[in-house]
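To assess whether the prediction recovers the assembly geometry, we first specified each molecular entity separately, as shown.
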Amino acid sequence: DGGITQSPKYLFRKEGQNVTLSCEQNLNHDAMYWYRQDPGQGLRLIYYSQIVNDFQKGDIAEGYSVSREKKESFPLTVTSAQKNPTAFYLCASRNSRGRVTDTQYFGPGTRLTVL
Amino acid sequence: AQTVTQSQPEMSVQEAETVTLSCTYDTSESDYYLFWYKQPPSRQMILVIRQEAYKQQNATENRFSVNFQKAAKSFSLKISDSQLGDAAMYFCAYRSPEGNEKLTFGTGTRLTIIP
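The predicted structure of the complete assembly is given in tokenized form:
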């Protein structure tokens, strides 16, 4: 069954700790994205990657880091430098080849709470 | 920079009736993509419908259709024969055709279906 998985669904972190959110896709998509959603707001782009071993900062990259060592995986690390990390995090991917290349498909999300 | 505005924070509609959600955007580009995403209580973002700006014909997906007015930079979503399962947050999103990868989202409209 093809799709995008994110784990864990809920994550709790103490202040000063780094945490890593997992995102895996088996859709054979080249491009992957991380968005953050805060209450009453739309999604904002943190990082994106168009190919393996390459990624670019989005609008709110400060305090976050990513890696793209495999096509299927795009983990996001929320570092202690992120001032307000409590939010809902969504991962997405896009097929950059084929007939329809403009649509991003989303995973189920991870809710991060800083205690 | 592109901006997306959804001026209706909340809407409600009687079951089986029709409702229209508004979206306007600001851009200097002539070619782009527009999307409506649905976010139910599970919080996963689900693609509802997409529109390519170079196409004059309005997109339709079953009970969902759009009214795309390029000159007015308006992209409204019409839901016909509303069902209880349509209750969700609806987000309008804009994407440039190349280069900048991100989706720019509006702040969303919460749709309630009245039985």
